[in-house]
Amino acid sequence: MLSDKAKKEIEAALKKYPNKRSAVMDALRIAQHDRGGHLERSDMEDVAAMLEMNPVEVNAAAAFYTMYNIRKPVGKYHVQVCRNISCSLLGAEHIIKYMEKSLNIKTGETTPDNRFTLSTVECLGSCGTAPMMQINDDYFENLTEQKVDEIIKKLV
Amino acid sequence: MATIKINGKEITVEDNTLILDAARKAGYEIPTFCYQADLMGIGSCRMCLVEIEGQRKLQPSCITPVLHGMSINTDSSTVASARAGVLEFLLANHALDCPVCDKGGECELQDMVHKYGPRTGRHAEPKFKFHEKDYVLSQVIIKNSNRCVQCMKCVRVCREVVGRNVLGALGRGDHQEPTSFNRTFLDCDMDGNCIEVCPVGCFMRLPYRYKSRPWDLKGADTICPYCATGCRMVIEERDGQLLRARAQLGVGLNSETLCARGRFGCDFVNSAERITKPLIRHQAATWAEALASVKDGFSGKEGKHIGGVAAATLTNEELYLFQKLMRTVFGSPNIDSSSRWNSDAASAFIHAASMNEGGVSIFDCMEADTVLIIGSHISDENPVSEYIVRRISSNRRMNLIIASPRAMKLDSSANVKLRHLPAAEKAVLDAITLVINAGKLSEAEKLKAIKDSKMVDLLTAAGVGVDEITDIAKRLSASQSVAIVAGTEFLRFPDGTSGLALLKDVLKNLGKKVTVMPTLDRCNQRGAWEMGVHPSFGPGYATAEKGMDTEALLEAAMRGEIDALYVVGEDIISDYPDREFARTALSKVRFLVVQDIFMSETAKLAHVILPGASFSEKEGMFTNQEGRAQSIRKLLALPGKAKRDLDIIRAVGELFDGSFGPKNAVLVLDEIRQVNPMYSDVSLLFNNKKNSDNRLDNRAALVKCAAGVLPAAGEFASKAVSSRMEEHSFALVTGSHLFHLGRFSRKSETLLGLIKGATVEICEDDAARLGFVSGEKVKVKGKNHEVLATLKTSTGSKSRVAFIPESFEDAEVNRFFRRGEGVPRVSITRANQ
Amino acid sequence: MSDKKGGIDILDLIKKVLFTDFVKGLRITLGYNVSKSITHRYPDEEKWIPYRRFRGVHTLNRDEHGRELCVACELCVKACPTSCITVVPMEDDTGRGIADRVAKIWKVNLVRCLYCGYCEDACPTRAVRLGREYELACADFKCTVRNREELLLPQPVPESIEGGLVAKAKFERSLSGIKVTADLSATKKRAW
Fold it and tell me: What domain count does chain C have?
């Protein structure tokens, strides 16, 4: 269930769009924030009801974008490493492997202390500074092994 | 017009034609997965790539319109290698489990790879899997997403044609999976159109799972035996068991669509409950004994003491022969084709819908500027007609007006939806007529006319607001052509027919083109009337000596005046409004012969029961609601000693007249063509070619105008309900359920799996007011009868209207009705109270 | 051979006197008398064990876990030129077969069959193989149809034996019919 606060936020967001359906991404973002990082089935159903959409359409929108985490709670820090072409050419695969090693988890998993979740995503639009990753809402660019170490140390 | 060159061949096509359509027109085959004429183009599968001169990259032909002067190459080596490449990618993650897959042998991907594909794949990586085991998506769908080619036809057909929108594409790229919300169990229309459009074995039929291979099946191209939409379908059997029914792309007016009843409901023919041998007083007998008994029962009886009721699910040939038997051999004008409504209602409806003026194509109706659907819950009663309306209305600008007490799925496509009280069609139509006429008056007079007390009465009777009626009238006045789709409510409450006729005339006088298309709920109801199975007219609506209809027959039987009654396929007790009356009356019939395929309530009272044939065991012709004569084909052998209905009717005739005939269906058809001018040059040729341009309108099948003119029908007393009611009281309406229609569907295992017990549907607000939740058991209590039913809520229905479908034998809904009374009142309370 | 026409060939005369041709002929005859026999004493004492490539009565096979290999795809039915195979599939996900699709009915009419081996070629899982059983004679038509249960039984001649052997056999006659049982431990190479 969405909290009343989230519902109010979505109501407010609805005003920004020409029709209700258009607000689906914003509404899902609010719902995800409300839940604390991921979306439960009931959240999507609530959003669908508020936006007068069919639940499966909301589900499809949420499943398309990597920024929505469906039904899988994520850690405090959601590390999303870009694996698209520019980043790949500049060593994203290597960064992903290094992340896996240093966090001791596999891609898609969360550390046992619920601190980090590692996932790979498609292009985040920062190809000029590849390889890059996004942790929660911040970009970390021009990654190297040392930089990754520093970032993780800072967060820990 | 644009002139283009395809593979060097010059062709002129309309502007905005897709390259794919143009190439197909020019005779070049372009393979596709995701393209389907009825659906929005998405160009996702890339199989249709073609080379356009002057463009560096190949273009998807299914979403690229032609431009004047284009030169297109569809079979160059570049195109061929592109196709092979696309297929190689599709196979990269495709679970190559063809031996296990139910689609194997009729899979489009198999065919394509065989024709265009790479002979070897280069992908050595492990394949991506959505899931290990097939999962059940609904009672009729089992799904294996690993085989998906992401053509999204399932999602589009569900949204654009069926209008349910319960499927969506989850994920992206090669991980995109078309499925339900969160892969949960679907609660949908169960029509299986997603299965039919799926080119691979991703969506599969659950009832057909691992039953057979396509090459084991023997099929027959036939017509659906449920509603009167007249969907063409192929039924297929293996070892004498009907295994599935499927529709074909570009064949019949339905193309690839069918509803749940048609696609999954035809297994009633396999039922173990079929009557397989003649019975005399419920003891097995031989045909000779049974016929001798029939001869005893009928000989020496006067025509006016004999009656005949033949169901509207028989073929035209059988119905024709039946009325010939009654009229010429028994000398009895007492014949009818329905026990649910009386024959005067039928005459009035035929007159109001101008059915004697020949067939009206539904595609023509949808060309109109305004389409008014009234008296029909088209989404449940004629689902495929509804698909056609939805599909066409989404493609062109037109006014779609729906007037019905109950909410329906098509409402989402409608411009105006009017919720009126049950049985108030006349009030609605009269109010509209009044406002349209008022349009001719000046402003001041108009206001006065609307404020006229009669208008107020009409609005109160209909339970609608003046704004809605004015809106509809405005839309009707503003359009050049109007199509009215009139449903079976006009037969249940015949007072509406005069309103329909009046509106039609008023619109015609205003210089508009008006077409009326009836929607009916028995596969051959129209055929039955046109064959003359009606007490007041003969074949082709020719005037005949007036006889008794079912109602009058029952009344006469009550008085003990009926010596012999011959009932073919009709279950009078279950269908006649007022069950007890029908049962008592029939038990007073001195000799009752019932010819049927199942032991119906009526058959239980019969002295002689003759086992007939189902639609899959005989040849013949059905006339659908539009007036399209279409033939059905024999597929299965008759069970046990059952005989074809035509042969039985002829054998009964031969008992009294040795030359009674004609002898077979073909000869009967010849006679129909001679006797009935409407059918003189109806073409029964199977339009079985796959029409790639998706022209589904087979006009050669439409019947012609009748020779005679039907007399105008009389007025009927209104049976509308007043809107003032107590707290728990509801106006009860009945009709067909989406999954059940008539009695056949109640013997279909698959359909019974979808819904078994009766439901009562009320609107959400009423349920909330009374504190009911959907799915709970409630007690529906009327004056004469009470039932326990599962409550179902609907959004947007008229308040204070309860709906119980008519097919459910556990509800016996006709017990609520009492002869001569209108809409019954019922109270709904919790089951345990 | 003679170089002198008209005269008497001395060499010829000597041959005739010494019965050389007779002795030659006799040598072949007597040679067969002492050589190894190439006929088998079937069914009383010996039975021919065919090579693996032999196409005899069909067998249905299992994988190493004992699951049926047949997925009832009916490709054998499609491939069969004489339509002698009938397959009806069913769903069974209890692990009976390698997939959840297994055969409810799998039967072959051995009288119609012409042992062409197309079914074997068509089979995607190598479930149906033509085995090494060739004794088809029977007293009624019922036993000309073999169904799944019989075909799934382990083969009397295991796959490990290469074949091309003559095994010691025993001929048994009982009320239920005749039977030739081979003793696979006592085999010999065939004689030629």
Answer: 2
Same domain, B428 and B397: yes
Per-residue pLDDT averaged across C41-48, rounded?
A: 88
Best CA proximity match to B790, nearest among B803, B807, B777: B777
| Structure letter (DSSP) for residue B157 | I
Domain CATH for B376: 3.40.228.10
Which is more confident, B784 or B270?
A: B270
Distance from CA of B182 to the nearest CA of A (A): 7
Which residues on chain B are in Cβ contact (under 8 Å) with A44?
181-182
Mean pLDDT in residue range B452-471: 83
For residues B429 and B464, is the Cβ–Cβ distance under 8 A? no
Return the CATH class of domain A77-155. alpha beta
Domain that holds residue B792: 729-830
Residues on chain B touching A55 (C-beta within 8 angstroms) = 181-182
In a domain? residue C50: no
Task: Domain A4-64: give its CATH architecture.
Answer: Orthogonal Bundle (1.10)
pLDDT at C2 over 60: no
Q: Torsions phi, psi of A47, nearest 5? A: -60, -45
What pLDDT is recorded for position C191? 63
Domain count within chain B: 5
Q: Residue B463 has what pLDDT?
A: 86
What is the average pLDDT across A9-34?
93
- Which residues in chain B are closer than 8 Å to C73, comparing Cβ atoms? 98-100, 104, 213
Looking at every residue in chain B, the average pLDDT score rounds to 90
With 80 as the cut, is the pLDDT of residue B707 above it? Answer: no
Residues in chain B: 833
Q: DSSP 3-state helix, strand, coil percentages of chain B (rounded to 5)? A: 35, 20, 45
pLDDT of C3 over the 70 cut: no
In a domain, C93, yes or no: yes
Q: Is residue B150 part of a domain?
A: yes
Is residue B254 within 8 Å of B617, Cβ to Cβ?
A: no
- Whether the per-residue pLDDT at B819 is higher than 80: the answer is no
For chain B, what percent of residues have pLDDT higher than 90?
69
> Domain ranges in chain A?
4-64, 77-155
The answer to which of B160-169, B410-419, B442-451, C43-52 has the lowest mean pLDDT is: B442-451
DSSP state string for A117-152? EEEEES--S-GGG-S-EEETTEEE-S--HHHHHHHH
From A44's Cα to the closest Cα of chain B, the distance in A is 9
Q: Summarize pLDDT for A81-106 with one digit per residue, the tens.
A: 999 999 999 999 999 999 999 899 99
Mean pLDDT value across residues C20-43? 87
Select the residue from A41, A42, A45, A56 to test the B interface by mutation, using most B Cβ atoms within 10 A. Answer: A56
Among partner residues C77, C100, C125, which is closest to B99 by beta-carbon distance? Answer: C125
Question: Over 60: is that where the pLDDT of A80 sits?
Answer: yes
Q: By a Cβ cutoff of 8 Å, what residues of chain B touch chain C?
A: 97-100, 104-105, 133-134, 209-213, 215-216
Residue C120: count of CB within 10 angstroms of its CB: 18
Query: E-assigned strands of B294-446?
Result: 306-310, 335-336, 370-374, 399-403, 416-418
Confidence band of B450 (pLDDT split at 50, 70, 90):
low
Any idea what the Cα angle at residue B354 is, between residues B350 and B359, rounded to 5°?
A: 100
Per the CB < 8 A criterion, the answer to whether B238 and B216 are in contact is yes
Sequence-distant (6+) residues with CB within 8 A of C92 are: C100, C101, C102
Torsion angle, alpha carbons of C151, C156, C160, C163, to 10: -110
For CA atoms C23, C24, C30, C34, the dihedral sign is positive
Q: Which of B682, B701, B718 is the last residue of a domain?
A: B682
Range of the domain at C23: 1-35
Nearest to B48 by CA among B75, B9, B25: B75
Q: Where does the pLDDT of residue B686 fall: very low under 50, low under 70, confident under 90, or very high at 90 and above?
A: low
Same domain, B210 and B297: no
